[in-house]
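Board notes (copied after class):
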Amino acid sequence: MGYRNLAECIADLEKHGHLVRIKEEVDPYLEMAAIHLRVYEKQGPALLFENVKGSPFKAVSNLFGTLERSKLMFRDSLPKVEQLVALRSDPIKALKNPFKYVGSGLTALSALPLKQSLFKSTFQKTSISSLPQIVNWPMDGGPFITMPQVFTEDMDKPGVMNANVGMYRIQLAGNDYVQDKEIGLHYQIHRGIGVHQTKANAKGQPLKVSIFVGGPPSHPLAAVMPLPEGLSELTFAGALGNRRFRYFYDEEGFCISADADFVITGTVYPHENKPEGPFGDHLGYYSLTHPFPLMKVHNVYHKKDAIWSFTVVGRPPQEDTSFGALIHEITGSAIPQEIHGLKEVNAVDAAGVHPLLFAIGSERYTPYLKERKPQEILTIANHILGKNQLSLAKYLFIVAKEDDESLSTNNIAGFMNHVLERIDPSRDLHFYTNTTIDTLDYSGDGLNAGSKVVFAVAGDKKRTLVNVCPADLNLPSPFGVSQIAIPGVLALQAGSYVDAQQAKQEIARLKESLKAVDLSGLPLIVLCDDAQFTAANVNNLVWVTFTRSNPAADIDGVDDFTRDKHWGCTGPVIIDARKKPHHAPELIKDAEVEKKVDRLGQEGASLYGII
């Protein structure tokens, strides 16, 4: 559908039974987020909050909460956009089948941004403090914009076609920000806005920033899409929304999205930062307080009857999980087309996305040898870890497609089973130390700092995995309860982590005790704080294991060795996934707020029958 604005989208969703209005007054401090989380857990509808305490504006969330709803919103444009992305990653397709792709060029052309000044009169002005001050989690540093489209231009190549539009969180108040005059701009490394700010800093000039909120749903989706090189977010938004991105410039030279519900304009001056955070984020933990760019607010614009769009992030799955499913639906094989030999890659949502990647590649380097070992897939792994946001991955498990043509990276348990049956821990672990990891990941030794490891597996099955604990375990202190999480993986409860030196001593005693035990069917041991929780399901296993460990510091192994600077072990790999003193706290809901939400599920209330 070619929605002209967010209100049209909301009306369409309501018509098709995908939206519910919440008429009761709701508190933007924790309650709105708690309502959203409760409804998302039930795979419920989008939510229109009609009475937000302390703000004259309505708010909407959970627009992208299910893949079914997303497909409904883009039902007229998805096939054309999938073709457009496919052509950008593999233009030869158009030459091979010109009639199939004849409309793609027209789609791209008709999606070019459209400058129109007549929309200027539709905007009014307000203040930051009048916007819905939504706080998602109890320890958050203040209210945040969680569904923004942050627009910046390249100083060397001004204009919308070389602009960047990204979704970077914005802190509206709290900490040291001057109310209504300053807000915080948080963006992670490897982001397009960073290139623009670097150029502005080099020239000693402020960077102009426009923050769009609301508008047609194609606009926020374009802001998070991993687009092929040379495909503009604004062009993509137009193609996906069946409506050209309309814009104009205000009197101060800031770009204004004509279809947005809200636009905040401001400047970021070179090297001016203020503390931003904490913020409950998508790994399931808080990102802590750090200095990030300070944005000095110029104007806050809004349309008449504007609707504030927001989401809530936390331990997956959340609405951004559904976002990811839609992105995969659109991009399909775009990334594998860009990396020769790569067949499939999946950032595992249950593990917080960036901490864990699964990949399948070709292993064709020595087909004349009977025994196959990781070679080509190691080359592919290096490509993956050098590719855009994939470079933030901490653990990469990559396997050879020739070993099982039916294997899928979306089947966590099946993929892990394949790896564990074939892994040779003396050969197959490859570390990258003192490198960059995700800004939101605190398992390393500093902001953006940590290590990576590749588990590269190819060849025949080497072992049969067991799904019962060994009977002859004689564990030293502080190790106790042990449970099989999935076949081949032992979740082993340990005492609280104190420091690296004590952990090393504890694990040394553990390794010594395990030498006398037959562990041939258990190639992986995960040390954890709660074995029952960790082993309860595969999602818990990957979340605990890969969000709470830094590979170079926390991987050990029975009968380990270092040869020519390569680390390996002949017994099971041990990953210390206990909470560490430097880790960020995990997200915990507020019990009193949860009780308040219950009222909306009572008979006669807005969410009766939904929650």
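Comment from the instructor: Residues 500-514 form the longest helix (15 residues). The chain has a mean pLDDT of 91.
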